[in-house]
Amino acid sequence: xxxxxxxxxxxxxxxxxxxxxxxxxxxxxxxxxxxxxxxxxxxxxxxxxxxxxxxxxxxxxxxxxxxxxxxxxxxxxxxxxxxxxxxxxxxxxxxxxxxxxxxxxxxxxxxxxxxxxxxxxxxxxxxxxxxxxxxxx
Length: 137
What we know:
This protein has one helix at 44-47, and strands at residues 21-24, 27-30, 58-62, 74-82, 85-91, 99-102, 114-118, 123-128, 134-136. The protein has a 4-stranded antiparallel beta sheet, with no helix packed on it. A 3-stranded antiparallel beta sheet has the order 3-4-5, with no helix packed on it. Strands 1-2 form a two-stranded antiparallel sheet. Helices cover 3% and strands 34% of the residues. The chain is mainly beta.
């Protein structure tokens, strides 16, 4: 992935081999010898570009459990970065607080089930529905 930056904002030629530098990820890099200008700082316009993660991809998950009274309750989920992986950021469907991923000791989890708990003590499991869509229970 390359980033577009105004050419006047960074060094254009490599100090080692005099070939052109290209912006790769965040710094100008020489494709010939591998030199990278780590002193480069990207402009603010670069940081505002929206990626799939940065665009705030949100999901509205329906209840897929066995209690009819919760049938119309939805949970809001957003993709978030945690170090080098993408996780779900779950908003509690009951109190609207952020939830943290947890595990219930002593209980066997279903295939592809992820469990979350909020500060109020509400517990939610994200799991595929019978149709294959992601839902919560």
